[in-house]
Every structure is written in C-alpha cells, then in structure tokens.
C-alpha cells in the first residue's frame, strides 16, 4: 500500500539496500532496485563492479550483509536457493557430458512430481522452443557451443521458474552465434512471459536485449533506465563513456549557456544543474556530429587524421586545435560521404548539434574509461 492508502501492486522483485562485503572489500553498497513481472533486466558494468555478486544474492547462492529482497509481498531475503524457484543459466554450459540432450533437459524436472506423459510433452515443447528437434539423443560433445547453451537454457526453464537469472550466458560463444542467441533468448522470454535478469559486461548486448539497463560501477548502481535513456541521457560521465562510443569535449557553462571553443549553445535542460557550472565536460556521440566545409562559421576547424570504413558507415577521427588538440570521432553515412567526400589530412569544420549534449562537471573526468 502506498502512502495515500490506495492499493499499489508490489513489484515482482524488490531489492532494497543490499550491501555485500568480502573481508574489508565492499563488493556492493546500498543497491536498491525494482523489477516488474515480465521485464528483461540487464546488469551492465565492467569486470569487478559486483554484477555477478548481485545476481548470486538474488539467486540465494550468496548471503547479503545488509538489505532485503522481496518477491511480490514475500520476504525471500533468507530463503534457500531451491525454495526461491529461480532458474539459473551460467556462462559455461554445465551440461552433464554423459547425459544426452533429452536427459539433460529432464534433469531440470527431476524434483517435480510429474507423470512421464507430462514430462514428455514438456520436453517436446522445450526441444521445439530451442530449435533442437532431432537432436534429442545427441551428447553435449556432439553439439556446437551455441547448441549446448540452448540445451542449458531449456534445462533452466524446464521447471517453469518464477525468475530466470542469466550470468554472462553468451560470453563464451563466437560473435555470430552470440547475436543469434540473443534474439532467441529474448524471443523465448517474451513468449513464455518470463521475468529475467541478465548479467553482461557487453554494452551492445545490454542495449539490444534489455527492457531496462542497470548500469553499475564499483558496487553501486549509477543509473537505471531504458536502453535509449541510458544511451542518450547518461547520468554520469562513467555511464556516458561505458555505454557506446562518446566524444568528450572541454566546455564552459555560464549564464545558462554552454561554450565549446568559439561556439555557444543553449544548456540542455536535463543537464542544467547547479553542479554543471564553470569548467565542464560536454559529450556527443559520433553519429550526432556533422562535417562542414573548412571555415564554416557555425563549426569548429578540424583536421581529418584517420578514416575507417566500417561497412554501414565511415568513422572519421579528427583533431580540433581550438580544443587543445582534442581527438573526436564523427560517423559518416555513405550519403554524407557522397555529399561531401573527405580524405585524410583535409581541413574540415565540425558542427555540433545544440540539443544532443550530455554535460558533466569537469571533476568527473577521472571516470572516463
Ligand atoms: P566479472 O564480470 O569479472 O565477474 P562482476 O562485475 O560480476 O565482474 P563480481 O564477480 O560480482 O564482479 O565481483 C565483484 C568484486 O567482488 C570483485 O572485485 C571480486 O574480486 C570480489 N569478489 C567476488 N566474490 C568474492 C569472494 N567470494 N571472495 C572475495 N572477493 C570476491
């Protein structure tokens, strides 16, 4: 119930004030987070930020030092893993090598009192879902990495878990399989209406799969938001730099205006805070900048240092003398290149779109990775 006395649905999972220490090392501090039923959540952050520890605490495999976990209205903070009825999928497939596909998946149902007809129909359904019809009798060694991980996924979802926990499930697979399996997992999760939490250090994976991303750093949650929120309005320079490629420009804020070199812009409302005064860092994505002819009035003079063809676009690396020789990247579509071809060594102008800046105090500059 909320403060007004009206009924409000409890979230599917509520994590409140979780702390975790390993000796004197603080792996998690005051992590608070709600997960709604049916959501796909990604914990995103660099190695060591505590995302696996948080997942293990949710699973009940690790005990928090402080804080609580509720599922709907039930306090599950001290419930043993089996009683939480969560499914877990790890990076390593962890299949039994001496059991075939069918036996591996059935293993997930071993504690259920199910009739064998029920087990058979559940099994057939799962084999269909993971696209392995005809391979029921194969052993793990006869399957590719991607197929093994699909079997492990089927085993994890076989008992219809209330929550699916995925710890870097794709990181041992090669790039192409990974991208395909991303879609399969997401598709399956949607079709079965599962609630899922996935740990990843891969920002592209998080952006492409998550309903909401939980960006973590040094044991703390830095931002929770949809992929587009986290990408376009990062709340810290750390998140700005970790999620996608970001250009970092020195700037100044005064009188509600943002100056970058000789250019002046209205301060974006989202970042117009008391902390953003004086010396600041202004961030722009490479695809948000435009090239103009050298000497254009509304652009900063720059020189093209590098030009890379990346298939669907070109990435130009420029150096900007007016910004202390700052290096910036600008992405150009093939249409951009047709309209205004550029070459290494050329002088150009860089135009900055007024309404796309993310702005942070210069004191955060240590957070860039
Ligand atoms: P990675 O992707 O590398 O696994 P992570 O973000 O998942 O990183 P965690 O595995 O949660 O990070 O670990 C967070 C921190 O806690 C790390 O510095 C790690 O060394 C430490 N840690 C984790 N488990 C233990 C443990 N059992 N004993 C001591 N320190 C631990």
From TrEMBL:
<dbReference type="InterPro" id="IPR017871">
    <property type="entry name" value="ABC_transporter-like_CS"/>
</dbReference>
<dbReference type="GO" id="GO:0005524">
    <property type="term" value="F:ATP binding"/>
</dbReference>
<keyword id="KW-0813">Transport</keyword>
<keyword id="KW-1003">Cell membrane</keyword>
<keyword id="KW-0067">ATP-binding</keyword>
<dbReference type="InterPro" id="IPR003439">
    <property type="entry name" value="ABC_transporter-like_ATP-bd"/>
</dbReference>
<keyword id="KW-0997">Cell inner membrane</keyword>
<dbReference type="GO" id="GO:0015697">
    <property type="term" value="P:quaternary ammonium group transport"/>
</dbReference>
<keyword id="KW-0472">Membrane</keyword>
<dbReference type="Pfam" id="PF08402">
    <property type="entry name" value="TOBE_2"/>
</dbReference>
<dbReference type="InterPro" id="IPR008995">
    <property type="entry name" value="Mo/tungstate-bd_C_term_dom"/>
</dbReference>
<dbReference type="InterPro" id="IPR003593">
    <property type="entry name" value="AAA+_ATPase"/>
</dbReference>
<protein>
    <submittedName>
        <fullName>2-aminoethylphosphonate ABC transporter ATP-binding protein</fullName>
    </submittedName>
</protein>
<dbReference type="InterPro" id="IPR027417">
    <property type="entry name" value="P-loop_NTPase"/>
</dbReference>
<comment type="similarity">
    <text>Belongs to the ABC transporter superfamily.</text>
</comment>
<keyword id="KW-1278">Translocase</keyword>
<dbReference type="InterPro" id="IPR017666">
    <property type="entry name" value="AminoethylPonate_ABC_PhnT2"/>
</dbReference>
<dbReference type="InterPro" id="IPR013611">
    <property type="entry name" value="Transp-assoc_OB_typ2"/>
</dbReference>
<dbReference type="GO" id="GO:0043190">
    <property type="term" value="C:ATP-binding cassette (ABC) transporter complex"/>
</dbReference>
<keyword id="KW-0547">Nucleotide-binding</keyword>
<dbReference type="Pfam" id="PF00005">
    <property type="entry name" value="ABC_tran"/>
</dbReference>
<dbReference type="GO" id="GO:0016887">
    <property type="term" value="F:ATP hydrolysis activity"/>
</dbReference>
<feature type="domain" description="ABC transporter">
    <location>
        <begin position="13"/>
        <end position="243"/>
    </location>
</feature>
<dbReference type="InterPro" id="IPR050093">
    <property type="entry name" value="ABC_SmlMolc_Importer"/>
</dbReference>
<dbReference type="GO" id="GO:0022857">
    <property type="term" value="F:transmembrane transporter activity"/>
</dbReference>
<dbReference type="InterPro" id="IPR012340">
    <property type="entry name" value="NA-bd_OB-fold"/>
</dbReference>
């Amino acid at each position: 119930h909320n403060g007004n006395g009206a009924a409000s649905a409890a979230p599917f999972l509520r994590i409140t004030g979780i702390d975790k220490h390993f000796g004197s090392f603080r792996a998690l501090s005051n992590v608070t987070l709600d997960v709604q039923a049916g959501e796909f959540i990604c914990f995103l952050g660099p190695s060591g930020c505590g995302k696996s520890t948080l997942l293990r605490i949710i699973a009940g495999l690790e005990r928090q030092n402080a804080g609580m976990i509720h599922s709907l209205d039930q306090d599950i903070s001290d419930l043993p893993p089996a009683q939480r009825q969560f499914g877990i999928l790890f990076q390593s497939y962890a299949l039994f090598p001496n059991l075939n596909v069918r036996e591996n998946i059935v293993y997930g149902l071993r504690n259920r009192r199910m009739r064998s007809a029920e087990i058979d129909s559940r099994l057939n359904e799962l084999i269909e879902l993971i696209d392995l019809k005809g391979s029921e009798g194969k052993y793990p060694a006869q399957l590719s990495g991607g197929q093994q991980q699909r079997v492990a996924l089927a085993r994890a979802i076989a008992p219809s878990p209330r929550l699916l926990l995925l710890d870097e499930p794709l990181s041992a697979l090669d790039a192409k399989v990974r991208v395909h399996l991303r879609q399969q997992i997401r598709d399956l999760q949607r079709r079965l209406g599962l609630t899922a939490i996935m740990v990843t250090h891969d920002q592209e994976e998080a952006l492409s799969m998550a309903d909401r991303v939980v960006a973590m750093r040094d044991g703390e949650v830095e931002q929770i938001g949809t992929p587009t929120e986290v990408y376009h309005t990062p709340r810290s320079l750390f998140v700005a730099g970790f999620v996608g490629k970001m250009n970092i420009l020195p700037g100044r804020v005064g009188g509600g205006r943002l100056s970058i070199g000789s250019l002046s812009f209205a301060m974006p409302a989202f970042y117009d805070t008391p902390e953003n005064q004086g010396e600041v860092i202004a961030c722009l994505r490479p695809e948000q900048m435009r090239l103009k002819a050298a000497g254009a009035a509304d652009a900063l003079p720059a020189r093209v240092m590098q030009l890379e063809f990346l298939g669907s676009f070109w990435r130009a690396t420029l150096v900007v003398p007016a910004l202390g020789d700052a290096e910036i990247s600008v992405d150009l579509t093939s249409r951009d290149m047709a309209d205004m071809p550029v070459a290494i060594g050329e002088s150009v102008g860089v135009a900055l779109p007024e309404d796309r800046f993310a702005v942070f105090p210069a004191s955060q500059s240590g957070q860039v990775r």
